Structures are given as structure tokens and as C-alpha cells.
Amino acid sequence: MADGLWWLPSLLVFGGAVVAFAAAIVGVRRLGRRRELTDLEHGRAVEVRAKQLIVETDERVREARREVAFAEAQFGAEAARPVREAGERAERWLREAFLLQQRLDDAEPDTAAERRSWSERIAGLCTSALGALDQAEQALGARRAAERGAGATLTELPETAARLGRRRADAAAALERLGTRFRPTALVGGRAALDRVDVALAAAGVALAAPSGAGDAERAARIAADLDRAAADLDALDRLELELADAERAAEQGVRRLDAELVEARRQRDALSEPEDARELGEAIAAVAQLIGGAVAAASGAGAAGDLPDPLAERDRLGAALDRLESARAEARTAQARLDGARSALGGALAIAESQLGVARALIERGRGIVGADARTRLAEAERQLVIARQEPDPVAALDAARRAAARAADAEALAAWDAGAGRR
Fold this sequence. Notes:
Elements: H1 8-75, H2 77-105, H3 112-148, H4 150-179, H5 188-209, H6 216-271, H7 275-300, H8 311-367, H9 373-391, H10 395-424
Helix pairs in contact: 1-2, 1-3, 2-3, 3-6, 4-5, 4-6, 5-6, 6-7, 6-8, 7-8, 8-9, 8-10, 9-10
């Protein structure tokens, strides 16, 4: 009995080894998961910092666009070129950062190493962009200081700051008056400009209050730059009412143009022969008609409380609606042209297929048993495709089937001729 169980110790040793190996695998996997979770937790700080840098860089790029326009007006295009080129580089880096952030935000699972690597890349791109913008703006500030002359500027800057302060008060009052005529969303840009004016004037006031010293030239350049930015934003605020009036006129013209386009679009829809194309164009027409109705209702009730207009948004919405309607009409025209072309070509394609089938049938009939299965199979497929072409209501699909029938019949003829020639030999 003992000799019959000689294998039991070996089995126990082998089983223990298997259990230990399985436990080791489970332990390694658990350790790997814990390490991955730890890495993800540590990487969150890097991701948060990357997002903060994206916001900061995006704001600086937007400010750089305004600075380029102001520098071109002040010094000319050539002097503003370094700022413009720095802004373009910063925009390229920012676009790459946005793409990487999109990877981090999408639904696809990423490893901790990937997320950390992408976040660090985002931070590096944004830091490079901010550095390029800082260098360009410092150079522009030096140019402004050289243009002004530091000694004269320090004596003139307080009066300039006071004058801009008075303009700021007038702009704030004008913005409040506009708030009684337009929705808050129409004045977001104006209020942001007023906030920038406040920041610039506050910074200039602090610098003006500082005691004189060896750094007066640099201080004067900073103050002048702040006041110039405030003046540019105040100029934009002065233009805001005119821009809103222009947007109102553009919205009214957009409604009239869309009305005319809707008439043409309905005629085009009624002339379409394909229900699917008519349905898609009809959906675009319905959406545009609803938008026009809302715009007219908003304009008629613009004086009522809570129904103030936003001409900037209305103009943009009407422009987008016109683009959608024009796109739908173009697609319908293309589809209709394709259908008309298919209808005109279908008769000829059917005649070619029938003629080719007749040639192939005659050749197979003459060859009798010499012609093999390949030629006969092609002929049967050609006949099937011809039936489809005659029964298919869609002229495009019918044309495709007729052309396939002709091609299969030509293949059947060629194979039958080959078989007949080989049989004669």
C-alpha cells in the first residue's frame, strides 16, 4: 500500500509550488495596481498645474493679439513684428497643449506614465509660450520708453492717468446705459475691457506713488505701457455702441436674406425627387424658420423687461443659420444632379448590358459542353445584376447594377472564348 502511494509526496510538492506561483502572480498584479493608483494620485498635481498654465497662456495669447494691433497702430507693422511672431509661436504651442489636454480628457483610459508625460509636456509648452510673450513685450516696452523719453514722461504721466480716469468714469456710465438696452451677454466684452482698464490704472497709480530713484526710466516705461493699454481698452469701449448698432443692422439684413433664401429653399425642396433629400433639406428649412421667428419675436419685444436683445449673438446665430441652409441646399443640388445624371445614363447602360449578355449567351450556346463553369457563373451573375438594374427604384443604384451586369457579361464572353479556343486545340 505504501509502495502504491509513492507519487503522493511529489504531488504535494508540485501542488504547493503551483499554489505559491499563483499567489505570487496575484501579489504582483495587486502591487502593480497599487503602484498605478499611487502614480495616478501623484500625477494629479501635475495635471492641475498643466490646466492652470493652459488658462494663463490662453489669456496671454489673447492679450498678445490686442497688443499687436495696438503696437502696429503706434509704431507700424515692422516694429510690431516681434510681438506678432512671438504670438504666433505661442499659439502653435498652445494648440499642441490643447490637443494633449484633449487626450487627457477623453474617455480612453491612459496609464499613469502617459498622463504624467502629457501633463509635463503641456506645462513645458505653456512655459515656452509665456516666455516668448514676455520677451516680446519687454522689447516693446523698451521701444515705448525710448520713444517717449523718460524725463519728460514722468512729469506728464500723472496728468495722463487722471485724464484716463475721467474717461474710465464716462465709459462706465455709458456701459450702464447700454445695460438698459441690451442683454448682459452683449456687454461681456465691454465689461471685461473696463476691468482691464481698472487693473492697468491701479498698477499705474501704485508705480506713480513710488519714490523717485535710479530706476525711474524703467518705472516710467511700465507706467506708460499700463496707461497705453488702458487707453486702448477705453477706445474699444467708445466703439462698443457703434458695434452694437452695426450688429443690429446686420441682424436685420440677415433676417431679410434668410427669408429670401427660405423661399428658394422651399421651391428646391418641392422639386426634389428623392424623399430622403427632401426630408434633410426640410429639416434645415424648419430650423432656420424657427430661428427667424425667434429673432423677429425678440426684436418686437425688445423693450420689454427680460427681453432685451443681444445683437452680436443674434447676428452670429443668423450667419450660422444661413451657412447651414446654404450647405443643405448645396448638398440637395448635388444629390439631385447625381440622380438626374444617373437617370440619363441608365438607358444606355441597360442597352450595353443587354447587348453584352446577348453576345456571351450566344458564345456559350455555340460552345455547348466545351465552355466551363467559370464562364457560365459570370453569365448567371450578369443576368442577376441586370434584373436588379431593371427593378431598382434608385437610379444611382440601378446604374451601378447595370454597369456590373455589363462587366460580368464581358467576363463571361472572355472566359467562354478562352474555353472554346482551348477545346478546338
